[in-house]
Write a structure and sequence with these properties.
This is Cytochrome c551 peroxidase. Heme c 1 binds at residues 69, 72-73. GO terms for molecular function: cytochrome-c peroxidase activity; electron transfer activity; heme binding; metal ion binding. With 382 residues, the protein is mostly helical. It folds into two domains: 49-185 and 360-376, Orthogonal Bundle (Cytochrome Bc1 Complex, Chain D, domain 2), CATH 1.10.760.10; 203-358, Cytochrome Bc1 Complex, Chain D, domain 2 (Orthogonal Bundle). It is built from 18 helices and two strands. Strands 1-2 form a two-stranded antiparallel sheet. α4 crosses α7. It is globular. Bound molecules: heme C (HEC) (2 copies). One heme C (HEC) binds at residues 67, 69, 71-73, 86, 88, 94, 96, 98-99, 101, 104, 107, 110-112, 119, 122-123, 126, 132, 176, 273. One heme C binds at residues 67, 69, 71-73, 86, 88, 94, 96, 98-99, 101, 104, 107, 110-112, 119, 122-123, 126, 132, 176, 273.
C-alpha cells in the first residue's frame, strides 16, 4: 500500500511542472520521510530557487569557465565529489574533500571545520577562492552575471521589488541557498522501517546492522538518530586521526602559521585552510585557535553514504568498508572501551549503511539533464 503511494508520488514528482528541481518547495506534506520539519525549507519562492539553480550549474561564472558548484558537488554522485580532493579553476587542487550537500539545509554550520554559519554566508565564498572559481572579487562575479543573457530577467523575477532587475551579491547568496534548501534526501529504507512502520523495509541482516549502529558500535552517539527524524550527525566536532599522522613533526609549524595569521572573518579563514594541506588537517582549530580543537572535524551525515565516497575530510578513504573499519577502530580508542565486531557483525553494519540511500536521490539525478539544458540556454562567452 505504502509502496504504491510512493510510486504515485514519484510519478507526480518527476512530471509535475511545479517542482523547481528537487523537493516541492511550496508544501510541507511532501517532506521526505525521516527529515526534520524545519521552517527554513518551507515556502521557498520558486523564482528564487530557479535563479539559484542556474547559478549552481553555470560554468561561465568561473575564471576558466570550467568550474561550477555542480562540478564539485556532482548531482550524479549525490552532490558530493567523486574525486578525493576537488579541482577548481585552471585545475588547481583543493585541500579538502567536497561533501554531499544534500540536506545541507539542516546543517548547524557549514564546512568540515564549521567556519561558516549559514548557507547564505557559504554561498558566496567559492567564487573568490582561488582553488574554486578563482575570481578576483565579488564585483567580477557581478560583472559576469550582468554580461550573461538571461540573468537580468531571472533576478527581476526573483526580486520583483527591485524593478530594474538589479544583480546583487546578496541576491546571489539568497538564491543559491534557496536552491540548496530544495536538495532534500530522505525516504530511505531505513526511514520507511523506522518512521514509516514498514517492518519489511529492512532485511534481517540490515536490522541487526541497525542494532549494532545504535548499540555495540556506538555509532549513533555522533551520527544521531532521533525519535521522529535522523540527520546522522550531531553537528559537532570530534577528533579524527585522519591526516594527523601525515602531519607529525610539521604540526608545530602549522599551528604557528595559524596563530600568526589571526584570521577572523570566515572568508579569510577559508583562504588560510586552502593555503596548505598541513593547515587543512588542523580542522576546527583554525576557526577557534583552541589547542583542544586540533584535528577535530564536523561529524558528516551518513545519509546516502553508500554512494558518496571517497570518504573523510581529506577524501583519503576510498571505500565504505575501509571507512567503517577505521571508524570502528578509531572510535574504540576514543571511548577507551574496545568495540569488537565479529566478521558477520561488520558485514551487517555495512549492510545497514546501504539502507541510508534516499529514494529521492535518484529522482534528483533524473532532473540533472533538464537543469543542464536550461543552463546551456544562457549565452556563454566562450
Ligand atoms: C572546486 C570545488 C568546489 C566548488 C566549485 C564548490 N565547492 Fe562547495 N565545497 C567544496 C569543498 C572541498 C568543500 C569542503 C571544504 C571545507 O570543509 O573546508 C565544500 C563545502 C561546501 C558546503 C558545506 C557542506 C557541509 O556539509 O559542510 C556547501 C553548502 C557548499 N560547498 C556549497 C557550494 C556551492 C553553493 C557552490 C557554488 C557557488 C560550491 N559549493 C562550489 C568544493 C567545491
Ligand atoms: C565521536 C563521534 C563519532 C562516532 C562515535 C562515530 N563517528 Fe563516524 N565520523 C565522525 C567524524 C567526526 C567523522 C569525520 C572524520 C574526518 O573526516 O576526519 C566521521 C566519519 C564517518 C564516515 C565517513 C563519512 C564521510 O562521508 O566521509 C563513516 C562511514 C562513519 N563515520 C561511520 C561510523 C560508524 C559505522 C560508526 C560506529 C562504528 C561511527 N562512524 C562512529 C564521528 C563519529
Amino acid at each position: 500500500m505504502r509502496t504504491s503511494r510512493w510510486i504515485i508520488f514519484a510519478f507526480f514528482y518527476c512530471f509535475s511542472s511545479s517542482h523547481a528541481f528537487g523537493h516541492d518547495q511550496n508544501s510541507s506534506s511532501n517532506l521526505p520521510l525521516g527529515l526534520p520539519n524545519t521552517a527554513s525549507i518551507k515556502g521557498l519562492n520558486s523564482n528564487l530557487v530557479a535563479l539559484g539553480k542556474r547559478i549552481f550549474f553555470d560554468n561561465s561564472l568561473s575564471a576558466d569557465k570550467q568550474v561550477s558548484c555542480a562540478g564539485c558537488h556532482d548531482p550524479s554522485h549525490a552532490f558530493a565529489d567523486p574525486n578525493p580532493l576537488s579541482r577548481g579553476a585552471f585545475g588547481q587542487k583543493g585541500e579538502r574533500h567536497a561533501p554531499s550537500i544534500l540536506n545541507s539545509a539542516f546543517n548547524t554550520s557549514q564546512f568540515w571545520d564549521g567556519r561558516s554559519d549559514s548557507l547564505e554566508d557559504q554561498g558566496l565564498q567559492p567564487f573568490t577562492t582561488s582553488k574554486e572559481y578563482g575570481l578576483r572579487d565579488v564585483d567580477e562575479l557581478l560583472q559576469r552575471l550582468k554580461a550573461s543573457d538571461g540573468y537580468q530577467r531571472l533576478f527581476r523575477n526573483a526580486f520583483p521589488e527591485k524593478k530594474r532587475g538589479e544583480i546583487t551579491a546578496s541576491g546571489v547568496s539568497k538564491s543559491i541557498s534557496a536552491f540548496e534548501r530544495t536538495l532534500l534526501s530522505g525516504n530511505s529504507k531505513f526511514d520507511r522501517y523506522t518512521y514509516g512502520n514498514e517492518s519489511d523495509a529492512l532485511t534481517a541482516s540490515q536490522m541487526h546492522g541497525l542494532g549494532i549502529f545504535k548499540g555495540l558500535g556506538k555509532c549513533s552517539g555522533c551520527h544521531l538518530i532521533e525519535s521522529n527524524h535522523a540527520l546522522f550527525t550531531d553537528g559537532k566536532f570530534h577528533n579524527s586521526s585522519i591526516g594527523m599522522e601525515r602531519l607529525a613533526e610539521r604540526l608545530p609549524a602549522a599551528v604557528e602559521a595559524v596563530l600568526a595569521a589571526h584570521a577572523r572573518d570566515e572568508a579569510a579563514i577559508g583562504k588560510l585552510v586552502l593555503s596548505s594541506s598541513d593547515i587543512a588537517a588542523l580542522g576546527r582549530f583554525v576557526v577557534t585557535n583552541d589547542p583542544k580543537d586540533i584535528g577535530q572535524f564536523k561529524t558528516p551525515s551518513l545519509r546516502n553514504v553508500a554512494i558518496t565516497g571517497p570518504y573523510m575530510h581529506d577524501g583519503s578513504v576510498s571505500t565504505l568498508e575501509e571507512a567503517v573499519d577505521l571508524e570502528t577502530y578509531q572510535r574504540t580508542d576514543a571511548s577507551g572501551r574496545p568495540i569488537i565486531l565479529t566478521p558477520v557483525e561488520r558485514l551487517e553494519l555495512l549492510d545497514f549503511l546501504t539502507t541510508l540511500t534516499g529514494s529521492d536521490t535518484a529522482a534528483l539525478r533524473h532532473n540533472i539533464a533538464a537543469a543542464r539544458s536550461a543552463t546551456t540556454s544562457l549565452r556563454r562567452p566562450y
